[in-house]
Amino acid sequence: MATNASIICKFSDGTIGYLRNAITLDSATEVKTDASGLVNQAGNLSIGQAFQNKTLIAASVKIQTDSATTGAFGYASIVGVGGNVIGIIQGSGSSGAGLPKLKRPIRMTTGVKINVFAQTIGDAVQYASLAVYYASGRADVFQGLAVDATDVSMTSVVGGLTLGEAAQGERVVCYYATYPATNGLADIGITDGVNALFAEDSSGQLKSMMYTAKGNMDGELVEFVEDSFMIQQNDTLTLRANV
């Protein structure tokens, strides 16, 4: 059963772009301009190549599974020429709607692309994702594959760095977190799981806790959550699920 990701993009000059292609579940997949021929645009191009020198100001992602509603949005990142995450896009499953403004506009150049991560909703351990913006304007995505009743360190999708290694000296200002288990992140009692992602300092002191969205919202995109906390070198981000 195939799954595709659609992305509507709006640029500062009023241009609209439509990206869509089949994606590989449980893996970040680049989504390029729609090549169906059903809309008037060149197909199968990275967003930076297709819309060179335009400034992206709003975008949203929709995950659609063929003849089903089981596809769940994990995250969507705008990736720069150097491979770093330079922006975050909101998204949802098949019922989501909206075209929110980006937290900061991004100018398109050849080499810029959009990666989308999606999964299938199920009662099993899943990947958790945390997409963040920092006060400096930087962005990043952290991810971890849950192991039942076990702490899992979430690391950056760029370079596999821990929270402290990737963002020492940065201040988180907003994020969204996703985890597409049918019954939630920690759904068996209160002894083996923690029902939120949690950031700690080197002594184990909590710095933030982040509830996860399923990524298949009923009519809504996954929302950014406003937060504020500093990140130091040895800070960690942990996922502890149970099923």
Write the layout of secondary structure elements.
Blueprint: E1 3-11, E2 16-22, E3 29-30, H1 47-50, E4 55-65, E5 71-79, E6 85-92, E7 101-107, E8 113-120, E9 127-134, E10 139-145, E11 152-153, E12 155-156, H2 163-167, E13 171-178, E14 197-200, E15 206-210, E16 225-230, E17 236-239
Parallel strand pairs: 4-6
Antiparallel strand pairs: 1-2, 1-4, 3-8, 4-7, 5-6, 5-8, 9-10, 9-13, 10-12, 11-17, 13-16, 14-15, 14-17
Describe what you observe in this structure.
The structure is a single chain. Strands 1, 2, 3, 4, 5, 6, 7 and 8 form an eight-stranded mixed β-sheet that branches. The protein is mainly β. It is globular, with a radius of gyration of 17 Å. The chain has two helices and 17 strands. The chain has one domain. Helices cover 4% and strands 44% of the residues.
Estimate the global geometry from the Cα principal axes: globular
pLDDT averaged residue by residue: 96
- The low-pLDDT segments are none
Order of helices and strands: EEEHEEEEEEEEEHEEEEE
**Strand tally, please?**
17
Describe the largest sheet.
Answer: 8 strands, mixed
Distance between the termini: 25 Å
Which class best fits the helix and strand makeup? mainly beta
Tally of discrete structural domains? 1
Report Rg: 17 Å
Total helical elements: 2
User: Which percent range describes the beta-strand content?
Assistant: 35-45%
Helix content: under 10%
